[in-house]
Amino acid sequence: MKLVLSASDLHGPRLGSLALSGVVAFASVCLLAQFARDDLDWMRAPLSSYLRGEYGWVVKSAYFALSAALGLLGLGYQRTLAAAARSSTPFLLFVIGGMALVVTALADSGSRSGPHPVESFIHNLSAAIAFFCVTMAMLLQAWRFRADEAWRQRFFLAFTLAVACFIALLWYAFLVDHFRGLVQKTVIAMIVSWLALASSWLRAPMPAVAHERGIDEAPP
Asked: How many other CB atoms sit within 10 Å of the CB of residue 218?
């Protein structure tokens, strides 16, 4: 069994498969945590509350998996789209968002008035950076589909969903006072859905794309 991936292995379908695995792992763990942590009110507690206490290390691991998936997704589209449609900006935003997600998971997420105000500030700041960078990367990556004839048909759905995620994020950040946990998790679910969809598209590209760019048509 081949345990180490070479650069030639990191083509679109392989990267899409790896990214989808990370996204699914994150979604599955966070969903199960809602049932496993009966000490938290799932409608009021933000997802960060599940990083501490029982099963916290499992949720942290899910954050790490999503962080890796973000970078893999950005790299996959960087390698798959036509030259005219490629841009390093979405890839860099996905990477920065993934790095911020790791910091979010590792930093203390208690009350800023508690015993670790600096760590809590870092947690809140890195979470905001992760949200902003990932949603902006989604918007820009979807917009780049327009410049690739083979992927242009994906543009409307990808961009519309990305815009919906961005609007929902602004609503959560500035307008929501009650049930912030529920609203935050809804926004995260929307973002994760976009990431899963984009990963699945990358995992099984259209035959024309696979043929023109030397990618195996069948996903690994």
From this structure: 8
